[in-house]
């Protein structure tokens, strides 16, 4: 089947499923493969569950005219998404970066949706499957699509750009994330900059943090750029008022009081402001959108219960985000500060060095208590409590309960699932 014909079928039933457990009536089921599963084997189940079509790439699973055989299901999904994007009048904003992608995407979306019909990546579906699925949610009346792009190795952002063909782009930052796949910080910068390369090569517009020397240098000669800065008069001025604990910023003499914890969220807010301004949204509307946004999904969530003041930032972690979270936590005007930190993953040969650097930082800042969890933190030289696993942490906290009225930062990589600490404390 030609991609045009598949697209016509999609327009008749514009809902995609890749999981038969979540299938809805008239969904088109794409039988994707993974390391431990073969979606082709679920073709009949998908049809029995109400799918209008199933897309397979193994002929032995063909059932009837509702079954479409292609060379490769994933490639067909990506080609369909690109074709759909080309047919749409929506403008596409893509963003990537080491830290803050998902929060920034959410902030951009709440600002732009005050004046435009928007769609945005759900959660962090930002890879070679998530980006196509996001693009396929573009509706006929969609005016702006905000597409998050994640990567853990070189050429991945370049590939995602070929699918999404963004009109605009923004990179949150270049940090120590996925060092194993990128081969070090220079690899991270090169990999994330693939978004810049696509945009500049195609004469598209770029939003930038002009206080970031890497972004400023890479875009020094490019003219279609729109940036924000706290110090550079050439760019749109935004001022950080404070972050005790919530980020307050000043935009055109209007103070915006957000529900976002940590000075590290300041630039995420700034990106939403400058993009909103570019799309002619007035500051009062930007203010209302940012002030009404409340983070969730374990990202810098404030939990103020009767016993403790907790900052839950357990969605993910890398050396850069861990460092700024700890430094921000240290700056809070609170007492009895306790850190519960989990391992950072995908660091490769840098794991030992980066975990020790975090330990050294915590000891330099002299917190009340530091609890380190995971195999990597357990191997460090530390004066802190060290646990190999969450089960050890659970046993420790049951016999050594945290004293009342403590201020607690919980942060670790997704695989550590440290939000489970809440059930104990």
UniProtKB/TrEMBL annotation:
GO terms for biological process: cell division; cell wall organization; peptidoglycan biosynthetic process; regulation of cell shape. It catalyses: D-alanyl-D-alanine + UDP-N-acetyl-alpha-D-muramoyl-L-alanyl-gamma-D-glutamyl-meso-2,6-diaminopimelate + ATP = UDP-N-acetyl-alpha-D-muramoyl-L-alanyl-gamma-D-glutamyl-meso-2,6-diaminopimeloyl-D-alanyl-D-alanine + ADP + phosphate + H(+). GO terms for molecular function: ATP binding; UDP-N-acetylmuramoyl-tripeptide-D-alanyl-D-alanine ligase activity; UDP-N-acetylmuramoylalanyl-D-glutamyl-2,6-diaminopimelate-D-alanyl-D-alanine ligase activity. The keyword Cell cycle applies. Pathway: Cell wall biogenesis; peptidoglycan biosynthesis. It is an enzyme of class 6 (ligase). ATP binds at residues 97-103. Its EC number is 6.3.2.10. Keywords: ATP-binding, Cell cycle, Cell division, Cell shape, Cell wall biogenesis/degradation, Cytoplasm, Ligase, Nucleotide-binding, Peptidoglycan synthesis. InterPro entries: Mur-like_cat_sf, Mur_ligase_C, Mur_ligase_C_dom_sf, Mur_ligase_cen, Mur_ligase_N, MurCDEF_CellWall_CoF430Synth, MurE/MurF_N, UDP-N-AcMur_synth. It holds the Pfam family Mur_ligase_C. Residues 299-413 form the Mur ligase C-terminal domain. GO terms for cellular component: cytoplasm. It is found in: Cytoplasm. It comes from the Bacteria. Residues 16-84 form the Mur ligase N-terminal catalytic domain. Residues 96-275 form the Mur ligase central domain. NCBIfam families: murF (TIGR01143). Involved in cell wall formation. Catalyzes the final step in the synthesis of UDP-N-acetylmuramoyl-pentapeptide, the precursor of murein. Belongs to the MurCDEF family. MurF subfamily. This is UDP-N-acetylmuramoyl-tripeptide--D-alanyl-D-alanine ligase. It comes from Maribacter litoralis.
């Amino acid at each position: 089947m030609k991609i045009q014909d598949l697209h016509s079928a999609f327009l008749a039933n514009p809902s995609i499923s890749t999981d038969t457990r979540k299938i809805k009536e008239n969904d088109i089921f794409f039988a994707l493969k993974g390391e431990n599963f073969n979606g082709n084997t679920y073709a009949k189940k998908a049809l029995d569950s109400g799918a209008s079509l199933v897309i397979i790439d193994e002929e032995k699973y063909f059932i009837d005219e509702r079954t479409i055989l292609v060379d490769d299901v994933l490639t067909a999904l990506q080609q369909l998404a690109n074709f759909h994007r080309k047919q749409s009048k929506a403008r596409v904003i893509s963003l990537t970066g080491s830290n803050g992608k998902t929060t920034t995407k959410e902030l951009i979306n709440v600002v732009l949706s005050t004046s435009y019909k928007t769609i945005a990546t759900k959660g962090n579906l930002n890879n070679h499957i998530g980006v196509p699925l996001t693009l396929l949610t573009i509706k006929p009346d969609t005016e702006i699509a905000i597409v998050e792009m994640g990567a853990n190795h070189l050429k991945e952002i370049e590939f995602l750009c070929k699918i999404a063909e963004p009109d605009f782009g923004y990179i949150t930052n270049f940090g120590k994330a996925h060092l194993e796949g990128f081969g070090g910080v220079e690899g991270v910068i090169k990999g994330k900059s693939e978004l810049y390369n696509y945009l500049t090569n195609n004469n598209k517009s770029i939003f930038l943090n002009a206080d970031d020397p890497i972004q400023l240098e890479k875009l020094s000669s490019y003219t279609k750029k729109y940036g924000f800065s706290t110090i550079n008069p050439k760019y749109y001025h935004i001022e950080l008022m404070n972050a005790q604990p919530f980020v307050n910023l000043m935009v055109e003499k209007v103070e915006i009081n957000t529900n976002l914890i940590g000075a590290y969220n300041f630039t995420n807010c700034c990106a939403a402001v400058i993009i909103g301004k570019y799309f002619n949204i007035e500051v009062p509307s930007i203010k209302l959108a940012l002030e009404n946004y409340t983070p969730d999904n374990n990202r810098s969530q404030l939990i103020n219960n009767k016993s403790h003041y907790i900052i839950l930032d357990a969605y993910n972690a890398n050396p850069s985000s861990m460092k700024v979270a700890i430094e921000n936590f240290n700056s809070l005007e609170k007492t009895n500060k306790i850190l519960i930190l989990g391992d950072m993953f995908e660091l490769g040969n840098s794991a030992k060095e980066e975990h020790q650097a975090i330990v050294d930082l915590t000891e330099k800042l002299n917190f009340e208590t530091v609890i380190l969890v995971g195999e990597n933190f357990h191997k460090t030289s530390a004066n802190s409590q060290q646990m190999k696993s969450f089960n050890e942490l659970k046993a420790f906290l049951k016999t050594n309960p945290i004293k009342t009225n403590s201020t607690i930062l919980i942060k670790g990589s997704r695989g550590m699932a440290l939000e489970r600490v809440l059930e104990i404390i």
